[in-house]
Structures are given as C-alpha cells and as structure tokens.
Amino acid sequence: MKTSTLLHNPFRPALACALLLGGFMTSHADVTLRGTVGKRTIEDNVVIAPNSSAVLKGTIIKGNILVKQGAKLVTNGARVDGNIQAEGAALVDLKASSRIEGDVQAKKTRSVLVQGSTRVGGNVQVQEATAPKKVHALLVQSSVVDGDVQAEKGTGHVKSLNTSIGGNLQVVENKNGTYTFNNNRIGGDLQFFKNQGKGTITGNRVKGNLQSKENSPRPVVKKNTVEGDTELE
C-alpha cells in the first residue's frame, strides 16, 4: 500500500531559500512597475514597489516578479516566465488565463488568488498569511497548478475548488479560517493537518493518500475518490 509522510514544515526550506537567500536578486536592471501595463514584453526582473499597485494586462515578463511590502499585483492574461514572490504584500491576484512558468511564493502576505483558468507551472506556496478571518488567504479556483499547493501557519480562508493539481495539496497549522477543498484533481496527496476552523473536503479525485489529522473541529470528508490510503483522525 502506498504511504506518505508530511514533514513538520513541508515547504519552508524551499520557500525560505527562495525569498531570503537569493531566489530573487535585485539589481540595476530591474524594472519597477506601477499602474496598468498593457501588451508589452519586459526582458528583466520586475519589482512592485512597497504600497503600490500594478495591473498587467496581456504583459509578458521574461524574468521574475517581486511584490514588496503592502503592494498589490494583478495579472490579467499576463505571462511570467520566472517566479512570482511576495513578502508582506497586500494582494497577488492571478486571473484571466494568466500563465506563470515558475513558482508563486508568498510569505506574510494578505491574499493570494489563482483563478480564472490561470496556469502555474511550478508550486503555489503560502506561508504565514495575514488575512482577516473572512478574507481569502489562498484561493485556487478553476485553474491548473502543475506542482504543489501549500499553505502553512496563516490566518484567513484557504480554498481549492475545481482545480487540477499535479503534486500535493498540503494545508498545515492554519487558524481562524474556513477550509474548502471541492472537486479538485490531485496527482499526489491531500494532507490537512493541525488546522483550526471548519473544513470541507468533498468530491476530490486523489491519486495519492487523503490524510486529515489533529484538526479542530474535524472536517467534513465525503464523496472523494482516493487511489491511496484514507487516514482520518
């Protein structure tokens, strides 16, 4: 039988290294964006300055995007060939068939939304989200994520709906939110550990294991198709 173990901090090393140790290095070639940017190609890395907003409409970014403290990024049919990384940002909203070739990584950020037929070629990783109780810390809806979807030690709602996830869906040690995972296709495991708040896990197709442990209260788990083991505590 297939088994899987979730480490105490399943993605912290990768996220910490990317955010803090040079996954995005600022340089004189970086481009700072504000306001609405249309259909143009930017060959360099992009920075969204602190407390500013940028909307990318059909824009092509050849490098990475760094969203700084209090900043907001909206992609509307944009393409990013690198990663999107947010530190203390207010919003990362990827929609309208945007394409992100790399990872989407956020630390101490209010809200990350991946929706509207967007595709992420890497992972979506959210750590220590700061959303209020009735706000989405992470929403992945009607999209494709080729890697993992992970949320750890944050506040606010965490939801994955009608999405294809190539890797694992892992939600660990979050609080003050509701957690809804409905009608997803998951290529790896679905792991829901040590969360505080109401949870619903229904109608998912899981190639790996479905594991729910030490949550308060216990989530509603029903009508899932699981090829591996189902472990509920």
List the SSEs and their pairings.
Elements: H1 12-20, E1 31-33, E2 35-37, E3 41-42, E4 46-48, E5 53-57, E6 60-61, E7 65-67, E8 72-76, E9 79-80, E10 84-87, E11 91-95, E12 99-100, E13 104-107, E14 111-115, E15 119-120, E16 124-127, E17 136-141, E18 144-145, E19 149-152, E20 157-161, E21 164-165, E22 169-172, E23 179-182, E24 185-186, E25 190-193, E26 199-202, E27 205-206, E28 210-213, E29 220-222, E30 225-226, E31 230-232
Parallel strand pairs: 1-4, 2-5, 3-6, 4-7, 5-8, 6-9, 7-10, 8-11, 9-12, 10-13, 11-14, 12-15, 13-16, 14-17, 15-18, 16-19, 17-20, 18-21, 19-22, 20-23, 21-24, 22-25, 23-26, 24-27, 25-28, 26-29, 27-30, 28-31
Distance separating the two termini: 19 Å
Task: Tell me the helix content.
Answer: under 10%
Q: List the strand order in the largest sheet.
A: 1-4-7-10-13-16-19-22-25-28-31
Basic shape: globular
Please report the number of helical segments: 1
The counted number of beta strands is 31
Unreliable residue stretches: 1-25
Number of domains: 1
How much beta, percentage-wise?
over 45%
Give a quick set of tags describing it.
single chain, 233 residues, mainly beta, eleven-stranded parallel beta sheet, ten-stranded parallel beta sheet, 1 helix
Describe the structure.
The structure is a single chain. With 233 residues, the protein is mainly beta. The protein has one domain (34-232). The chain has one helix and 31 strands. The chain has one helix spanning 12-20; strands at 31-33, 35-37, 41-42, 46-48, 53-57, 60-61, 65-67, 72-76, 79-80, 84-87, 91-95, 99-100, 104-107, 111-115, 119-120, 124-127, 136-141, 144-145, 149-152, 157-161, 164-165, 169-172, 179-182, 185-186, 190-193, 199-202, 205-206, 210-213, 220-222, 225-226, 230-232. The strands form three sheets. Strands 1-4-7-10-13-16-19-22-25-28-31 form an eleven-stranded parallel beta sheet, with helices on one face. A ten-stranded parallel beta sheet has the order 2-5-8-11-14-17-20-23-26-29, with no helix packed on it. Strands 3-6-9-12-15-18-21-24-27-30 form a ten-stranded parallel beta sheet, with no helix packed on it. Residues 1-25 have low confidence and may be disordered.
